[in-house]
Amino acid sequence: MVMWVREIGYQPADFDRFNIVHVAGTKGKGTTCAFVDSILSQYHDHYKTPRRVGLYTSPHLLSVCERIRINSKPLTEEKFAHYFFEVWDMLEAAAVERGGDISIKPKYFRYLTLMSFHVFMKEDVDVAIYEVGVGGQFDSTNVIERPIVTGITSLGIDHVQILGNTIEEIAWHKAGIMKSGSYTYSVWQPESAMDVLRERAKEKGSIFKAIPHAECLKNVRVVPDEDFQKRNASLAIFLTAHVLARLYLSGTTEHDREKIKADADDILSLEQPLPELFGAGLTDTVVRGRCEIIDKAYGRWFLDGAHTKESLEVVSDWFGKIVQTSADQEGVDALCILLFNQQASTRERKRLITTVQERLRQKWNIRPQESIFCTNITFKSQGYATDLDDRNSDHAIVSSLTVQHEYAKYWQLHDPEASTHVVASIEEAIATICDLNKANTGRPVYILATGSFRLIGGVLTILESE
């Protein structure tokens, strides 16, 4: 990755000017980055500082432009294309100069990471928030040399082929983003993982702090209002406070600088109520495809791209709590429908679908009356939506619906009376849901869609076009 950075005319040290917030973790890193971005946008709107904030996250839901944002807004398609081909041309020119093969380019995620550095340099951002792709130690984003602060969100078992099978191995990789002289904040982890993080911090010369569940969030509304989201918010307020405490606040009056620094100090001291702009930033944060609720005439959608055992437990609890509350407080007897897919061959399919089924049944006494398993193909006739093409999956396996029949088999193994449906596209899955609603006897319909961000992106594409 360092070679590619140099090929487009930069050195990794050039990116230090961004005042980078670098976030790794298994669950919640994208949401934590969104919280930081939203709080900083409140200070931008109120005090005109930071002047320009860059945000780099993955994956995207509807458009690849979502991955690179300036002041919370995705790049326009025109700007995205402009910067994409600037990087492309620089790479080819560098290959010609050294007598290399111009057809060799960084792979997809590396290319977009490289492009994000170029965009933020050209757009002159003064804070940049980077979400790690996979792991940390060997991630493309880890060419960053001197972040202003790093954060570690909740750890769990994921990407075992790359990161290892144990929480300790995974913690080692995530801690790879720690840098000498920089602060690292982490939410509370299992003790064995915390030991690894502390040891890695010592090895790398990073100042490590495990943060508590912030009491100042008690009266702040975050969506969803669950413990896991409060953990993400707790980490975000510490990361943001660290930025504001150390950032040179150009263009502000001395009075405003003192007020901003005081807000940051209040957070870091753990002794004061949450500053108003921090609270507003958390409340205003919108993270598409993560605990998102959308109402349609035929039913209420509950959307989340969870794709690990731990995250699927969290999503099942979120859905289960809402269903149970509706039943207990409002007497609602909802028709519950599951829409699920996770196509990756590297994930334990039986473990994932069984997690959803058992969590809903055992903890919440919910047995979805209908379960639908589809591919990530968006449309019945036109195939994938433009930015949602899945080139990592085996075309023959997708076409034969092998994975979807496997999910249906696992589901019926534990619930032989279950009604399951296997369909070839997301469009057909939604049509099936509409048909089920027509045969419904007036009960409200609650649809839980989960398993992958590709699935959720396709669902949103169709729902927003209805």
Summarize the structure in short:
The protein has helices spanning 2-7, 29-47, 77-97, 108-122, 160-163, 167-174, 191-204, 227-246, 254-269, 276-284, 309-330, 349-364, 395-400, 402-414, 426-438, 453-463, and strands at residues 20-24, 53-56, 68-70, 73-74, 127-131, 149-152, 183-186, 207-210, 292-296, 299-304, 335-340, 370-374, 419-423, 445-450. It has 466 residues and is α/β, with parallel strands linked by helices.
Describe this entry's structure for a reader:
With 466 residues, the protein is of the alpha/beta class. The protein folds into 2 domains: 2-284, UDP-N-acetylmuramoyl-L-alanine:D-glutamate ligase; 292-463, Mur ligase, C-terminal domain (Protein-Tyrosine Phosphatase, Chain A), CATH 3.90.190. The protein has helices at residues 2-7, 29-47, 77-97, 108-122, 160-163, 167-174, 191-204, 227-246, 254-269, 276-284, 309-330, 349-364, 395-400, 402-414, 426-438, 453-463; strands spanning 20-24, 53-56, 68-70, 73-74, 127-131, 149-152, 183-186, 207-210, 292-296, 299-304, 335-340, 370-374, 419-423, 445-450. The protein has an 8-stranded mixed β-sheet with strand order 4-3-2-5-1-6-7-8, with helices on both faces. Strand 7, helix 7 (191-204) and strand 8 form a beta-alpha-beta unit. Helix 2 crosses helix 8, helix 2 (29-47) packs across helix 10 (276-284) and helix 11 (309-330) packs parallel to helix 12. The protein is globular, with a radius of gyration of 23 Å. The two termini are 42 Å apart.
